[in-house]
Amino acid sequence: MVPGNLVDGLSPHLRVATAVLPFLIVMVARVIWGKSKTMSWLISMSTVWFVINMLAAPYSAGFRQELINLTTRF
Questions:
Q1: How far is CA 22 from the centre of its chain?
Q2: DSSP assignment of the chain, as one string?
Q3: What is the pTM assigned to this prediction?
Q4: 15-69 pLDDT, tens per residue?
Q5: 71: Cα separation from own chain's centroid
């Protein structure tokens, strides 16, 4: 099974949840355990995860094609 096909089968709400949920979990963890170097690292990683999911999520074939064309323009 190709990973792209797995993502295509997800509902839009589930796609958003997979992008937002790790960030929310890290925010709750920071409130519970306070500010530390580990928490800062986890916040950074969850923010990157969110950005990647929002920018690279295959919402439509046209959007995927635009992303592919964007790399060839530079």
A1: 9
A2: --HHHHHHTS-HHHHHHHHHHHHHHHHHHHHHH-S-HHHHHHHHHHHHHHHHHHHH----HHHHHHHHHHHHH-
A3: 0.59
A4: 778 888 988 999 999 999 989 999 999 999 998 888 877 776 655 666 667 767 7
A5: 19
